Amino acid sequence: MTRFQLLQLLVAQARSHGFELRKWYTSRLGLPWQSSRHAIEMLSAEKRYYALLFSHEFASTFWKGGELMTFQVPKQTFQRRMADGSIGTVTRKPYTRRTAREDAWRYHLREMAVSEEPLRYMRRFLRVEDELEEEPEPPPQELSITVDDD
User: How many domains does the chain have?
Assistant: First the structure.
């Protein structure tokens, strides 16, 4: 999935909760409005999408307060002291988590700020790619070659 496609999906989800991209784009970036496609292209260029991801208007509509939200928690591996005093490695499987907090967007802004790649963090909240199935490839067709000896 490209950065542009991911931003399209993120903006679409925020729009479904009431986010107005046009209003935000013209007021926050000060650029003239042409179309939503052009706006997302401009955001995906030169890491301008950080302005969108970390804006309070976007975050508060993307993570709508009080709404049940489902997201994927990635696999975790860490070391800890075991009951017998030895150091052991704990591996947790990825799992789906559901939450419904009024200020969830503030929590997620903090988490996104400390994550290495904010777009990867945001991608966890889109359940689109996980649900898409790849189309099976058609079976290879046999080619028959005939040679005429003249």
Answer: 1
